[in-house]
TrEMBL record:
Lineage: Bacteria, Pseudomonadati, Pseudomonadota, Alphaproteobacteria, Hyphomicrobiales
Hydrolase keyword on record: no
GO molecular function terms listed in the Swiss-Prot or TrEMBL record: peptidoglycan lytic transglycosylase activity
PANTHER family attached to this UniProt entry: LYTIC MUREIN TRANSGLYCOSYLASE (PTHR30163:SF8), MEMBRANE-BOUND LYTIC MUREIN TRANSGLYCOSYLASE B (PTHR30163)
Signal peptide: 1-27
Protein's UniProt name: Lytic transglycosylase
Coiled-coil region(s): none
Domain Peptidoglycan binding-like as annotated: residue spans: 345-401
């Protein structure tokens, strides 16, 4: 993962992992012949799907199997840091200030994007900052070679075969030349790191030059990111994330992204705005999000927060992107970020996951990552042990599990 540059590879890794189980993909894989034989068959498929022979030749002549890509795919890391550490590294003051400058420089374009798609400037800009630092780090891999390698490899061949075909269609309609397709090792393109399928279906020509270019056109980047978020279900004129403070006697089992209550109910449980003022006494539904447990930062996550999880299923990434957007929009810095909250090491997390698995819980892969399934299992065990059920694992819980 390229913290100093882009989150794209990890974003795609999470997306691909969720799309289809790796085992089922490998079992259905028929790529047992040589890469050249596979490529010959794929060229035929591309032609059958309407891609011109000129594009097929321009894009695929000279493409070879790249073992670097396979090794990178096998060893990819996810978001194993705590939320506090992760958000400090990603939601930096540099990105905050750069984001505000980007909005000022493109104000009319952002206004047009919000009028068209309903997505505010700060939301678009936060993704732009995290994905590529506004174009500084879009990746340096030949995307066509990377996609062909991953489509041939049996790990997730069906997904990447579709992405390679979409990449050819992008070239065929004239948006990009093959040589411009330099991006992440996992095949993502442009300054907001779109998968080729997303680029093909949701990139828009927002500057009116006849092409959608997410590498060079700020207008196209802004419009396309907004269009994609609208496609994911963004609700105009609604919030996404709001920092709050919580009472010590709150019913912690209610703090769950799967549970939503009106703000009036959260207020009745002692939840207040981060500045200590009362929450609005209305029926707007929200979940209470505690990424570091009950002693860490606390947020109300609204319906639009679901779109962040659609963009990237890592809770750390989604919360950081949503928080950075609030900061770009003028919110105060997070209050609970500097608290020294103990977190389990990677090995301790694996031990916890193993213990939960032994007790019949489905935590997914035992990988040392605090994902949604692990959080759900932790909450169940906390309830059984009569502990505050905030879904955040501690060393005390691990000891009670015998780890």
């Amino acid at each position: 993962m390229r913290y100093q540059r882009s989150l794209a590879g990890v974003a795609l890794g999470l997306l691909c992992a969720a799309a289809l189980p790796v085992g089922s993909l490998e079992a259905s894989c028929t790529n047992r012949g040589s890469f050249s034989s596979w490529m010959k068959e794929f060229r035929q498929e591309a032609a059958q799907n309407g891609v011109s022979q000129r594009t097929i030749s321009r894009a695929l002549d000279g493409v070879s199997l790249d073992e670097r890509i396979i090794k990178r795919d096998r060893r990819q890391g996810f978001f194993s840091q705590s939320f506090n550490d992760f958000s400090k590294k990603l939601a930096t003051n540099h990105r905050l200030q750069a984001g505000r400058k980007k909005i000022a420089a493109n104000r009319k374009t952002f206004e047009r994007a919000e009028a068209t798609y309903g997505v505010p400037a700060e939301v678009i800009t936060a993704f732009w900052a995290l994905e590529s630092d506004f174009g500084v780090g879009m990746g340096d891999y030949p995307v066509l070679q990377a996609l062909a390698t991953l489509a041939y490899d049996c790990r997730r061949h069906e997904l990447f075969r579709a992405e390679l075909l979409s990449a050819l269609k992008i070239i065929d309609r004239g948006d990009l030349d093959p040589g411009e397709m330099i991006g992440s090792w996992a095949g993502e393109l442009g300054q907001t790191q779109f998968l080729p399928t997303h680029y093909l279906n949701h990139a828009v020509d927002f500057d009116g030059d006849g092409h959608a270019n997410l590498f060079k056109s700020d207008a196209d980047i802004i419009g396309s990111t907004a269009a994609y978020m609208k496609h994911l279900g963004w609700r105009p004129n609604e919030p996404w994330l709001q920092e709050v403070v919580v009472a010590r006697d709150l019913p912690w089992q209610e703090a769950d992204l799967a549970i939503k209550h009106p703000r009036s109910k959260w207020a009745g449980w002692g939840v207040k705005l981060a500045n200590g003022k009362a929450l609005p006494n209305d029926n707007l539904p929200a979940s209470l999000l505690l990424p570091m447990g009950r002693t860490g930062p606390a947020f109300l996550a609204y319906n639009n927060f679901d779109i962040y999880l659609e963009w990237n299923q890592s809770l750390n990434y989604a919360t950081t992107a949503a928080y950075l957007a609030t900061r770009i929009g003028g919110a105060d810095p997070m209050k609970g970020q500097d608290r020294n909250i103990p977190s389990l090491s990677g090995q301790e997390m694996k031990a916890l996951q193993s213990s939960l698995t032994d007790r019949g819980y489905d935590v997914g892969k035992i990988d040392g990552i605090l994902g949604a399934k692990t959080r759900a299992a932790v909450k169940e065990m906390q309830l059984k042990f009569n502990l505050p059920a905030d879904s955040y694992p501690t060393i005390d819980l691990l000891r009670q599990l015998g780890g």
